[in-house]
Design brief:
Strand content: 25-35%
CATH topology: Metal Binding Protein, Guanine Nucleotide Exchange Factor, Chain A
Shape: globular
Number of helices: 2
CATH architecture: Beta Complex
Largest sheet: 6 strands, antiparallel
CATH superfamily: Peptide methionine sulfoxide reductase
Oligomer: single chain
CATH class: Mainly Beta
Order of helices and strands: HHEEEEEEEEE
């Protein structure tokens, strides 16, 4: 059951508004559950301290201290910030996976797999196109 306060914090826009706000590539990934090509994302090799935020609504999703190089071709994290993401069963692509979405705007981020390092053992495999980055104060 959804709490009334939770429903009030959700970001809601029409598909036309999302498309105008995001541009074609971000719209394809965030709103149509697309995937960017591996090793192509701007944030894959980012090593700066800061927060990875939703590319649609700006909600903090992952802390840079949980990011690691999984070798998969997408930014990978061991855990989200609090309850910033929702997980959903994904039966597309001929397999069962766990899709990860922004809890605030329901934008598609990527998938989570049980093959990550400790302490969680999880790998949140996230599209750069679905993220923004806010460096820690004082960093360029």
């Amino acid at each position: 059951m959804t709490d009334i306060g939770e429903a009030e914090t959700k970001v809601q826009r029409t598909e036309e508004e999302w498309r105008a706000l995001l541009g074609e590539e971000r719209y394809r990934v965030l709103r149509k559950s697309g995937t960017e090509a591996p090793f192509s994302g701007d944030l894959l090799n980012n090593k700066a301290d800061g927060a990875y935020v939703c590319g649609a609504c700006g909600e903090p999703l992952f802390d840079s201290h949980t990011k690691y190089d999984s070798g998969s071709g997408w930014p990978s994290f061991t855990a989200p910030v609090g309850e910033a993401v929702d997980e959903h069963s994904d039966q597309s692509a001929g397999m069962t996976r766990v899709e990860v979405r922004c809890a605030k705007c329901e934008g598609h981020l990527g998938h989570v797999f049980p093959d990550g390092p400790g302490p969680t053992g999880l790998r949140y495999c996230i599209n750069s196109a679905s993220l923004g980055f806010k460096p820690t104060d004082g960093e360029a």
